[in-house]
């Protein structure tokens, strides 16, 4: 399906931005840089805005979600906005009883413990999301408009859409909340593979529709985030998880546009924590760019991917608190290793820690842009 | 230093047990099997015994710790007892304010947040442990005696001693308790490497003395457990962690004995969760046998270790809840892959989950012993 001609990619606004070029495998003059979780908890202007508003309410308030998404672009001059949302937003909208508890994470009113629980969940039709995502699409539209009004950036800064991968959502649903080892979820995939695959297909449809809606509304790239995939062996990932991740990405893969007489698809990024063993399999589900965790050097990731895959990452968030000389050396090392890939989007190898000094992030952007 | 001639290894009692032979790199007739965390929470007889006793009090009660250690040997007929203790026991004994909170883990009265905090900690002299570990050495002695009285086993079942690795202890001390990503600990190693190495040397001395005491009192092998090493890149592990792990193992490495005219050292096993990237480095700190997490197949671990290293592992705990046919296939697959190593001790690729049906563990032991 063709994107609307006014979409930032289709209109040409973001098509040649540093970020989209790098996601296409080109090497722009300057390495683009953004930070996972740049929108949110590390910024004082975010904390001020959020006072008195619950996390999911903030995600579903278009003005607030859009303003929060814009804050780090204004402050750090990063090369991408990343949509402020949460991976459980589509679960809430489809009818799942879920809340985000501060300092803990998503907590379900009811964990999936039986086939009856599962049947009740699967009775919620993912197709209803197409009509319930208006707060999200409105926030995306406001963000895209807002990006053009930020002084000091060129107006072509792309917005990255964001959704959780099916395994991570399924893990929360089965566990009922955060878990150290996701043992219940991983047990279910072995003890009842049929129930597991039904659950995974459902979460794929839910999160796929969420991601598609963001792209249709104006996001210029789509990142699928598998927080917990690193808990899986390659065999389990390939057999019990990858098919659902591919299914989720199908919702975005058919979205394309024409520029300069050529057809282009919307760039897809796939990232998971601790997934050094899974990089090639995660690329294989349909990602264009692979996000790399801080544990694996980018040149090693390039080797594991067999070459030719754009990489995103992987500053260790633990280095953000180090003296500038130490951090600078680390950033330059990441850039040097990223040079082994066809293209590189500098990012963290995990989200921005809440107590990060925002000025450190700004300084990293300045360092990269000045090279 | 030579072990006492009455030590189970030196007297010959356990020297030719399946476990010790496999740890030496021999292949006994039957693959030895034991389970990490076999002593404890999954057994009803354990839960009955523990009623009204706090975790660390149970660890420091020789009769109770010894009885808990023996329970799974009686029940499952495993090829090793593993000492019931906790990695923070030596911290408590050296004077650190630490408690184990049920469902959470070790919680420190005070986290290390400043150089003053660190100085206060380092003022506690690890050498005092040699006199404060009597409850531990008494429990070990009672266990060794108790193993000879269990009907249906041959009396030569060895006891495996157990201690936490310096990084895991340091992570708890810096974080103040369990943490998802150990960001404060990992930040300290980059922001103040000198403070970090002082802390690591201290934890190495504390936990090394704890492990040594268990071996001197009668343990026939020593397992160093690095719960959180999997959070580290290979570079950080090698630079900021491995030296301290090697230092901890120095406390055991000089303990030896003579059998059949040959000198032998006490077998050392090193295991960490999610450490597929670190296997060779973890072997390099002085381990004889490397424990492998469930994420990496044993034949791949063998390849990464360059061959020649005895392996321990790696049944996925998530498979313990699967139907027997599924679990049996998985166990046989683990055994087949373990055949690529010079020798193999069957174990889990992480601890026994609390809600495991103990009969499943017994059935695994029967399956392995019947082959």
Q: What key attributes describe this structure?
A:
homodimer, two-stranded antiparallel sheet, globular, 7-stranded parallel β-sheet, 17 helices, TIM Barrel, 371 residues, alpha/beta
Strand-residue proportion of chain A: 5-15%
- What string gives the helices and strands of chain A in order? HHHHEHEEHHHEHHHEHHEEEHEHEHEH
Distance between the termini of chain A: 39 Å
Please, what is the oligomeric state? Answer: homodimer
Q: Could you tell me which chain pair has the largest interface and how many residues each side has?
A: A-B, 33 and 33 residues
The overall number of domains of chain A is 1
Helicity range of chain A: 40-55%
GO cellular component, one term (chains A, B): cytosol
InterPro entries (chains A, B): UROD/MetE-like_sf (IPR038071), Uroporphyrinogen_deCO2ase_HemE (IPR006361), Uroporphyrinogen_deCOase (IPR000257)
Catalytic activity (chains A, B): uroporphyrinogen III + 4 H(+) = coproporphyrinogen III + 4 CO2
Function (chains A, B): Catalyzes the decarboxylation of four acetate groups of uroporphyrinogen-III to yield coproporphyrinogen-III.
């Amino acid at each position: 399906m063709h994107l609307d001609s006014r979409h930032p990619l289709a209109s040409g606004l973001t098509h040649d931005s540093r970020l989209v070029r790098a996601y296409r495998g080109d090497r722009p003059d300057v390495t683009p840089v953004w930070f996972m979780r740049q929108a949110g908890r590390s910024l004082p202007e975010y904390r001020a805005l959020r006072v008195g508003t619950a996390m999911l309410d903030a995600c579903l308030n278009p003005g607030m979600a859009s303003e929060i998404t814009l804050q780090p672009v204004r402050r750090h001059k990063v090369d991408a906005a990343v949509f402020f949302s949460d991976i459980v937003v589509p679960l809430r909208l489809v009818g799942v009883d879920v809340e985000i508890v501060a300092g803990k994470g998503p907590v379900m009113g009811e964990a999936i413990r039986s086939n009856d629980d599962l049947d009740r969940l699967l009775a919620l039709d993912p197709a209803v999301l197409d009509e319930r995502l208006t707060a999200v699409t409105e926030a995306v539209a406001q963000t895209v408009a807002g990006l053009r009004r930020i002084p000091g950036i060129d107006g072509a800064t792309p917005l990255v859409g964001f959704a959780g991968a099916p395994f991570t959502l399924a893990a929360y649903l089965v566990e009922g909340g955060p878990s150290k080892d996701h043992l219940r979820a991983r047990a279910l995939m072995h003890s009842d593979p049929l129930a597991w695959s039904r659950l995974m297909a459902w979460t794929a449809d839910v999160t796929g529709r969420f991601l598609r809606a963001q792209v249709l509304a104006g996001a210029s790239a789509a990142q699928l985030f598998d927080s917990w995939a690193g808990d899986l062996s390659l065999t389990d990932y390939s057999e019990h998880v990858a098919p659902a991740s591919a299914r989720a990405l199908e919702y975005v893969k058919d979205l394309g546009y024409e520029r300069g007489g050529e057809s282009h698809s919307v760039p897809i990024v796939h990232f998971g924590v601790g997934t050094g063993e899974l990089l090639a399999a995660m690329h294989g589900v349909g990602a264009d760019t692979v996000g790399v965790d801080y544990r694996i050097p980018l040149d090693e990731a390039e080797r594991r991917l067999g070459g030719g895959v754009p990489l995103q990452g992987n500053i260790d968030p633990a280095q953000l608190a180090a003296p500038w000389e130490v951090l600078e050396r680390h950033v330059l090392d990441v850039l040097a290793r990223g040079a082994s890939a066809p293209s590189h989007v500098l990012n963290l190898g995990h989200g921005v820690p809440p107590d990060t000094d925002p000025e450190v992030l700004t300084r990293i952007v300045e360092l990269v842009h000045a090279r």
